[in-house]
Amino acid sequence: MQGVTVHIIRDFKNIPCPRRKLIKLIRVICKRFRLTKATISVAIVGNRRMRKLNIEFLNHKNFTDCLAFDLSENKIAPRLLELVVNGERAKTQAVKRGHSPQAELALYITHGLLHNLGFDDLQPKKAKIMHRIEDEILQQQGFGLVYDKKRKIVSNKRRQKC
Asked: Which of the following CATH numbers is that of domain 4-140: 3.30.1830.10, 3.40.390.30, 3.40.50.12710, 3.90.180.10?
């Protein structure tokens, strides 16, 4: 997919970062949702930086797992998307949830990108759909079930895309 350019910047380096696998993940998501022209930047940061950004942009005083920004001029021109993901939180949450830090990081990237593509998780029904899609994508890309480890996901060849 030549029309999607991906940049990954690491401010927090205390987590292994499978750069090629994450770039492939982002491109697979873009292809699935027909985003053919975009520049997507991903910044991997720690708790301190994430907290500062969360205060600055959302006026929330704590840190979070990801922030998603759509800096595009409009929805027709090539999209300019920025994701900030919390590598430090990914590392600690992965231990608590029983999977790899890379899988948790991939979840944050997928979650943020889906927000930029119009998905919402504020209402329980919409959140369920979004989390199901996250797990489908992450499992298909070799990260395993990350959000809902109790559920097995079958191939989505017969499913409708949301």
From this structure: 3.40.390.30
